[in-house]
Amino acid sequence: MSTVQQQLKLEQTAQGWDRSAEGYLAFMEKTGFTRLYAQDILDETLPVSSQNNTPKDVKILDIAAGTGAMSIIAAQRVKALGVGGSVLATDFSPLMVECIEKEIKSHNLDNIKAQVMDGQNLTLADSSIDFAYIIFGIMFFPDQQRGLSELLRVLKPGGVTGIATWSPKNPMAEWVINTLKKLVPQPTTPTPATPTTPPTPTGITLSLSDPVSIETVLKSSGFVDIKVEGKEHCFESTVDMYVDCNLDNPVLVGIKNSLPQDKQPLFADTLRQVAKELHPNGIIKINSLAYLTTARKPQL
Ligand SMILES: C[S@@+](CC[C@H](N)C(=O)[O-])C[C@H]1O[C@@H](n2cnc3c(N)ncnc32)[C@H](O)[C@@H]1O
């Protein structure tokens, strides 16, 4: 495994994500960000018109819920459907869970709870959930297979899942690659001690980033009726805000820590400089393509 992959794995801890909770919430509030994709998945799996098919007292689980992008909309949807039921928003980062609790209060919702929980070890009964979502979370699990087995275990037979993952088309990935090229210039004549290419942010960030691999993994985990759809949304942000809210993200921290020690303090400023060279007016329109997957646990 390359140094960058080792560092990325090392940073995938609750404390690592705790550090990014505040920035993540701020970006979410300014741009809507992942809420737009959560809305798409909810419209597909639990449309407003589904009163008659939705179980009474419906149980919804949001895994790796972050600051509650999916959970809040899902709780509002349950109210709109009038079927009764509740949402459990879970994340392994206590500070993300605190952000969700603030969101629950500010939206004045009484049908949702937030709980600290690792997606690879759900402390929930077998076959207890009607709808379970993992929006932009599964790619960070060190053991994705285990996460999917847990997801399948807690769903009721016939229960529905919705999963969102990013495609590789993402401006931050390009900025990071250019930053690494600046900080680790490549020798013209490579030697065994000096790699021919700088480290690139692959692996965790790009896992499950194409329809074939998503379908294959879900099928081998035991899901059926798998449907994968690409969906693009556009956000506008200042470059500074987009950089600031990503700097504490465990993915960028892992990439920074994979650099030689003397280069690590230069990472943030170089990233900002690279981004501003590409967007001199300081504004970025981010077109982000995601894959939205829906599937079912087989009926008994
Ligand atoms: C990019 S955020 C996405 C949050 C939210 N679902 C959204 O779409 O806005 C990834 C989230 O996954 C959570 N996470 C990562 N690994 C986890 C794990 N093993 N168990 C539970 N949550 C995890 C992080 O704490 C973080 O909140």
Automatic annotation (TrEMBL):
InterPro entries: Methyltransf_25 (IPR041698), SAM-dependent_MTases_sf (IPR029063). GO terms for biological process: methylation. This is SAM dependent methyltransferase. GO terms for molecular function: methyltransferase activity. Keywords: Methyltransferase, Transferase. SUPFAM superfamilies: S-adenosyl-L-methionine-dependent methyltransferases. The keyword Transferase applies. It comes from the Eukaryota. The lineage of its organism: Eukaryota, Amoebozoa, Evosea, Eumycetozoa, Dictyostelia. Residues 60-159 form the Methyltransferase domain. Gene3D superfamilies: Vaccinia Virus protein VP39. Pfam families: Methyltransf_25. CDD domains: AdoMet_MTases (cd02440).
